[in-house]
Specification:
Elements: H1 2-5, H2 8-28, H3 32-42, H4 46-52, H5 58-91, H6 96-118, E1 123-130, E2 135-138, E3 142-150, H7 162-168, E4 180-187, E5 190-197, E6 203-205, E7 208-217, E8 226-234, H8 238-259
Length: about 280
């Protein structure tokens, strides 16, 4: 049974299926009748969405379940591969190729486990719209306060709808380093940190991340029209994920280096001569 679950064919078809599901998910985000549901998944932890989703979008619900099941089956496939590698190493502990295989499988399993845990642990608050002087409270005693918003480019682009605004925000018209918001992060009313947010540079404090996703323009307040849209996330496994991902890349390079055997048979490059 373990050999079947560890088979390379199962790995191949799992990866194909996962790729197709992720591709179909990208397509669903462009379909008007499903885009709202897909956006709701990205704006909160998937587990929270799954727990409170009203099930009125059966297609997205089915897609989500199939994606989770396919990812789970791939994770089981990796664990079974690790078990087989350990069995080989018990018999022949000096097999460098098998040790590298085990290392790659272990790191890949850690990366997948972090993906799974990030769907359920921590929190995510999206579409937090604030103006200078306003604050947002989250967790039991945490709070972020926006002290200043600076937008030096033409504010006319902010008056357009979301899709048009994204089209107008090109390198020639929008300069991320010149448009920013200053925030302060407090815990129990005590300042824990402050920083400047741009659309390419989030604020981080431990495993907490605050991201500026958009600038807003309130036409009804011409004296103080600027606002920002923020996303607050806490992911305890994000550091483990990135470290494991980097180590996985190095492990693949090491595997290629130690197992690559160039073919020195130069005769295969000599074309046969016909007389």
């Amino acid at each position: 049974m373990m050999k079947r679950l560890a088979s390379i064919k199962l790995t191949f078809w799992n990866l194909i299926g996962l790729g197709l599901l992720l591709g179909s998910g990208a397509v669903l985000t462009t379909v008007k009748s499903h885009s709202k549901t897909m956006r709701a998944i990205s704006e909160q932890l998937p587990l929270d969405w799954f727990s409170f989703f009203p099930r009125d979008d059966g297609l997205v619900f089915t897609w989500f379940l199939l994606t989770c099941l396919t990812g789970g089956l791939l994770f089981i496939n990796i664990l079974c591969c690790m078990g087989l590698r350990l069995g080989v190493l018990v018999v022949n502990p000096r097999n460098l190729r098998q040790w590298l295989f085990l290392l790659i499988h272990t790191l890949f399993a850690v990366v997948m486990a972090c993906h799974g845990l990030s769907m359920a642990v921590g929190f995510k608050h999206s579409n937090i719209q604030l103006k200078p002087g306003q604050s947002f409270s989250f967790a039991p005693e945490d709070e972020i306060i926006v002290s200043e918003i600076v937008f030096k480019d033409n504010t006319d682009m902010l008056k357009a709808d979301y899709q048009t605004r994204r089209t107008l925000m090109t390198r020639n018209h929008f300069h991320p380093d010149q448009n920013y918001a200053r925030i302060t992060f407090t815990r129990k009313d005590q300042p824990m940190g402050s920083g400047t947010l741009t659309m390419l540079s989030p604020f981080t404090q431990g495993d907490l991340q605050i991201t500026l996703t958009d600038f807003l323009y309130d036409k009804d307040r011409p004296s103080d029209p600027l606002g920002v849209s923020l996303v607050v996330t806490k992911n305890p496994v994000v550091k483990v994920f990135f470290i494991s991902y980097v180590l996985l890349i190095f492990a693949l390079i090491l595997f290629a280096f130690f197992t690559w055997k160039p073919n020195h048979d130069e005769t295969r490059f000599i074309l046969p001569i016909k007389y």
